[in-house]
Specification:
single chain; mainly alpha; 6 helices; 74% helix; elongated
Length: 182
């Protein structure tokens, strides 16, 4: 069951990654068009501001994808020299710590969003973008990452408790550099 949950989460995150990726490509096209227009003394204006917002959104939503694709960096000097159970315990410990950090970040993001909503805050730029328009999806990305992190952690713990420690490698293991060379 744990691996089925992880497969479902991977499929969801791949879909989200495609959507976010197409948004990023659209933003890149917008910036390129704006740069081209500048050559003829015209401009859409605000492309750098919008690109900054796009990067914040891509970062928050991309973290969950990176988690499930084992894309987060981890130093595994000791972990790589141990057996399956010890490796799984290191992985579960790292996921517990990551989940705690990500949940804390998601919780701390909410007051920023709440304040922007309550105050009707706008960017101090020519576009005067309502900040809630950007901060709500940014916050949602952090919440999604926190939920994914907690679910993956629970799945890994269940596998270890059930004596299937070797199976945790595929869901919370560290992508070893030496694996990529083979």
């Amino acid at each position: 069951m744990e691996l089925a949950v992880i497969d479902t989460l991977r499929k969801l995150n791949r879909t989200i990654a495609l959507i976010v990726g197409f948004g990023l490509l659209g933003m890149a096209a917008f910036v390129v068009a704006d740069i081209a227009l500048r050559q003829v003394h015209a401009s859409f204006g605000g492309s750098e501001e919008l690109a900054g917002y796009a990067m914040a959104l891509v970062s928050s939503w991309g973290m969950a994808y990176a988690l499930l694709e084992l894309g987060h960096i981890r130093i595994d000097l000791i972990r790589s020299r141990t057996g399956d159970l010890a490796r799984a315990l290191f992985d579960v410990f790292s996921m517990i710590v990551m989940s705690g950090v990500v949940v804390t970040i998601a919780i701390k993001c909410w007051p920023v969003v709440e304040r922007a909503i309550q105050n009707g805050s706008r960017a101090n730029t020519p576009l005067a973008t309502p900040l809630a328009w950007v901060q709500i999806p940014w916050f949602a990305g952090w919440v999604w990452f926190a939920v994914m992190s907690c679910l993956v952690t629970l799945a890994a713990i269940c596998l270890v408790v059930r004596g299937r420690a070797a199976e945790t490698e595929a869901i919370v293991g560290a992508f070893a550099e030496q694996d990529s060379l083979q």
